[in-house]
Amino acid sequence: MPESIVVTVPKLTQGYVLNEKFKHPGPIYWRLPQVPARPVDRVYFVWDGAVRAWRKVLGFEGEYEGAIVMLDSEHHTIEPLPMKSFQGYHWFEPARGEAAG
User: Fold this and answer.
1) Does this model's pTM top 0.70?
2) Which of 37, 45, 76, 82: CA 20 to 30 A from 52?
3) Confidence of residue 23 (pLDDT cuts 50, 70, 90)
């Protein structure tokens, strides 16, 4: 059964990601440190201290130094769920608003 992960929108690139990348009309690509070991159907995004949005996963491409996930063009906003920023990704249960390292 597919699961969800959560990633942080880096503070340094937040303006670009929120104002340009997330508004791009087609699919977007996001770099991960590795392809997740379990199937993933959604990627949630945290910025400014909360999980605020998600996108559906269309596919993964493995790389020597990480992985690229292709995400659907439809951007879904959610009620903010408090969460601190972190590096990499965490498994995420959106109903509970918790990430599992």
Assistant:
1) yes
2) 37
3) confident
Query: In this structure, are residues 40 and 79 in contact, taking their beta carbons and an 8 Å threshold?
Result: no
Distance CA 60, CA 70 (A): 6
CATH number of the domain where residue 7 is located: 2.30.130
Structural domain total, the chain: 1
Distance CA 88, CA 101 (A): 10
pLDDT tens figures, 32-91 = 998 888 899 999 999 999 999 999 999 988 766 788 999 999 999 999 999 999 999 999
User: Amino acid identity, residue 1?
Assistant: M
Using an 8 Å Cβ cutoff, are 24 and 49 in contact?
no
